[in-house]
Design brief:
Blueprint: E1 4-7, E2 11-12, E3 18-24, E4 33-39, E5 46-51, E6 57-59, E7 67-71, E8 77-82, E9 91-98, E10 116-117, E11 121-125
Parallel strand pairs: 2-11
Antiparallel strand pairs: 1-3, 3-8, 4-5, 4-9, 5-6, 7-8, 9-10, 9-11
């Protein structure tokens, strides 16, 4: 079973940038789709950025244009680059993977489809 470890969370001022990393215990480039989720205090978990095995991406409307999701060339890491962060981005961020799908899979923000989860990394945006 693939294991995921997130890192890169920290405190940042509004308008700043962060890059979160999701490191997988095995190669995930071609058979796993990965999505970043977040959960703010007192709120439900929400999917914000996903990437498919074909490199296709999907974003929640509130982060589109500010966040990007990408994979490393070695096939073990998925990044979430966060630009122009806002106070409303404060949350625990989780990465999740679904697979293996031998025919590939597409990006989705539906948490019910994911069965491999990391422990999370905290992002706090404040002035």
């Amino acid at each position: 079973q693939v294991r995921l470890v997130e890192s890169g969370g920290s405190s940042v001022q509004p308008g700043g940038s962060l890059r979160l990393s999701c490191v997988a215990s095995e190669y995930i480039q071609t058979q796993y789709c990965v999505t970043w989720f977040r959960q703010a205090a007192g709120k439900e978990r929400e999917g914000i950025a996903g990437i498919g095995t074909d490199g296709g991406t999907k974003f929640k409307y509130s982060v589109k244009g500010r966040f990007t999701i990408s994979r490393d060339n070695a096939g073990h890491i998925v990044y979430l680059k966060m630009d122009d962060v806002q106070v409303s981005d404060t949350a625990m961020y989780y990465c999740a993977a679904r697979g293996p799908w031998f025919g590939g899979c597409w990006a989705t923000l539906d948490s019910d489809l994911f069965d491999h989860w990391g422990q999370g990394t905290q992002v706090t945006v404040s002035s």
